[in-house]
Amino acid sequence: MKRLALIASLALVGCAQPGPKPLYQWDGYQAAVYQHLKSNGSEPGAQISALEAQIEKNQAAGVATPPGMRAHLALLHSKMGDDVAARRHLEAERAQFPESAAYVDYLLKTTKKDAAGSAASAPAAAASQPKT
User: Fold this and answer.
1) By Cβ atoms counted within 10 A, which residue in 10, 27, 32, 128 is the most buried?
2) What pLDDT, in 10s, does the model give residues 18-34?
3) Contacts by 91-98 with C-beta closer than 8 Å and gap 24+?
4) Would you call 84 exposed, middle or buried from its count of C-beta atoms within 10 A (0-12, 13-18, 19+)?
5) Which of 80, 24, 21, 20 is nearest to 49 (CA)?
6) pTM of the predicted structure, to 2 decimals
Protein backbone atom coordinates (compact mmCIF):
# COMPACT_ATOMS: atom_id res chain seq x y z
CA MET A 1 0.00 0.00 0.00
CA LYS A 2 2.86 2.36 0.82
CA ARG A 3 4.44 1.56 -2.51
CA LEU A 4 1.23 2.45 -4.36
CA ALA A 5 0.94 5.73 -2.44
CA LEU A 6 4.57 6.56 -3.28
CA ILE A 7 4.05 5.84 -6.98
CA ALA A 8 0.86 7.91 -7.03
CA SER A 9 2.55 10.85 -5.31
CA LEU A 10 5.54 10.67 -7.71
CA ALA A 11 3.16 10.61 -10.66
CA LEU A 12 1.38 13.69 -9.35
CA VAL A 13 4.66 15.51 -8.74
CA GLY A 14 5.90 14.55 -12.19
CA CYS A 15 2.77 15.95 -13.81
CA ALA A 16 2.94 19.20 -11.90
CA GLN A 17 3.88 22.18 -14.01
CA PRO A 18 5.40 25.40 -12.76
CA GLY A 19 2.91 28.17 -12.03
CA PRO A 20 2.08 30.78 -14.61
CA LYS A 21 4.76 33.27 -15.53
CA PRO A 22 4.12 36.68 -13.91
CA LEU A 23 2.63 39.28 -16.20
CA TYR A 24 5.06 42.01 -15.09
CA GLN A 25 8.58 42.05 -13.65
CA TRP A 26 8.24 43.90 -10.35
CA ASP A 27 11.84 43.32 -9.25
CA GLY A 28 13.19 46.45 -7.60
CA TYR A 29 10.11 48.64 -8.17
CA GLN A 30 8.34 47.98 -4.89
CA ALA A 31 11.56 48.47 -2.94
CA ALA A 32 12.20 51.76 -4.75
CA VAL A 33 8.72 53.08 -3.96
CA TYR A 34 9.10 52.00 -0.32
CA GLN A 35 12.49 53.71 -0.09
CA HIS A 36 11.07 56.86 -1.70
CA LEU A 37 8.26 57.02 0.86
CA LYS A 38 10.52 56.10 3.77
CA SER A 39 13.07 58.81 2.94
CA ASN A 40 10.48 61.46 1.99
CA GLY A 41 11.96 61.43 -1.52
CA SER A 42 15.35 62.67 -0.36
CA GLU A 43 17.47 60.61 -2.79
CA PRO A 44 15.77 60.61 -6.19
CA GLY A 45 19.03 60.20 -8.13
CA ALA A 46 19.80 56.74 -6.74
CA GLN A 47 16.22 55.61 -7.30
CA ILE A 48 16.26 56.91 -10.88
CA SER A 49 19.39 54.88 -11.60
CA ALA A 50 17.95 51.73 -10.04
CA LEU A 51 14.59 51.98 -11.81
CA GLU A 52 16.07 52.83 -15.21
CA ALA A 53 18.44 49.86 -14.85
CA GLN A 54 15.43 47.66 -14.03
CA ILE A 55 13.57 48.87 -17.14
CA GLU A 56 16.59 48.07 -19.30
CA LYS A 57 16.86 44.65 -17.66
CA ASN A 58 13.16 44.01 -18.31
CA GLN A 59 13.51 45.01 -21.97
CA ALA A 60 16.56 42.77 -22.40
CA ALA A 61 14.71 39.83 -20.83
CA GLY A 62 11.58 40.51 -22.87
CA VAL A 63 9.34 41.00 -19.84
CA ALA A 64 6.86 43.81 -19.30
CA THR A 65 7.56 46.75 -17.06
CA PRO A 66 4.84 47.02 -14.39
CA PRO A 67 2.23 49.76 -14.40
CA GLY A 68 3.31 52.86 -12.54
CA MET A 69 7.07 52.31 -12.79
CA ARG A 70 7.55 54.86 -15.55
CA ALA A 71 5.14 57.27 -13.85
CA HIS A 72 7.17 56.97 -10.65
CA LEU A 73 10.31 57.64 -12.69
CA ALA A 74 8.61 60.72 -14.12
CA LEU A 75 7.95 61.94 -10.58
CA LEU A 76 11.58 61.42 -9.63
CA HIS A 77 12.87 63.16 -12.77
CA SER A 78 10.50 66.04 -12.11
CA LYS A 79 11.87 66.40 -8.58
CA MET A 80 15.36 66.56 -10.09
CA GLY A 81 14.21 69.30 -12.49
CA ASP A 82 14.50 67.16 -15.63
CA ASP A 83 11.10 67.86 -17.17
CA VAL A 84 12.09 66.40 -20.55
CA ALA A 85 12.81 62.98 -19.02
CA ALA A 86 9.67 63.23 -16.87
CA ARG A 87 7.55 63.89 -19.96
CA ARG A 88 9.26 61.02 -21.83
CA HIS A 89 8.45 58.55 -19.04
CA LEU A 90 4.86 59.75 -18.71
CA GLU A 91 4.32 59.35 -22.44
CA ALA A 92 5.87 55.86 -22.30
CA GLU A 93 3.52 54.98 -19.42
CA ARG A 94 0.55 56.17 -21.47
CA ALA A 95 1.72 54.19 -24.53
CA GLN A 96 2.20 50.97 -22.56
CA PHE A 97 -0.98 51.34 -20.50
CA PRO A 98 -3.64 53.14 -22.58
CA GLU A 99 -6.08 52.95 -19.67
CA SER A 100 -3.87 55.48 -17.88
CA ALA A 101 -4.14 58.03 -20.72
CA ALA A 102 -6.65 60.33 -18.99
CA TYR A 103 -4.57 60.55 -15.82
CA VAL A 104 -1.26 60.92 -17.67
CA ASP A 105 -2.77 63.65 -19.86
CA TYR A 106 -3.92 65.42 -16.69
CA LEU A 107 -0.42 65.17 -15.22
CA LEU A 108 1.16 66.48 -18.42
CA LYS A 109 -1.31 69.37 -18.60
CA THR A 110 -0.81 70.21 -14.92
CA THR A 111 2.97 70.08 -15.30
CA LYS A 112 2.80 72.36 -18.32
CA LYS A 113 0.62 74.85 -16.39
CA ASP A 114 2.95 74.73 -13.38
CA ALA A 115 5.97 75.35 -15.62
CA ALA A 116 4.24 78.22 -17.41
CA GLY A 117 3.02 79.70 -14.13
CA SER A 118 6.43 79.57 -12.50
CA ALA A 119 8.11 80.96 -15.63
CA ALA A 120 5.61 83.82 -15.79
CA SER A 121 5.86 84.61 -12.09
CA ALA A 122 9.68 84.49 -12.01
CA PRO A 123 10.19 87.94 -13.59
CA ALA A 124 7.44 89.41 -11.41
CA ALA A 125 9.01 87.87 -8.32
CA ALA A 126 12.42 89.16 -9.32
CA ALA A 127 11.01 92.65 -9.92
CA SER A 128 9.40 92.70 -6.48
CA GLN A 129 12.67 91.87 -4.73
CA PRO A 130 14.28 94.85 -3.05
CA LYS A 131 17.46 96.04 -4.73
CA THR A 132 20.49 96.16 -2.53
Assistant:
1) 32
2) 777 777 878 778 888 88
3) 93/67, 93/68, 96/64, 96/65, 96/67, 96/70, 97/67
4) exposed
5) 80
6) 0.69
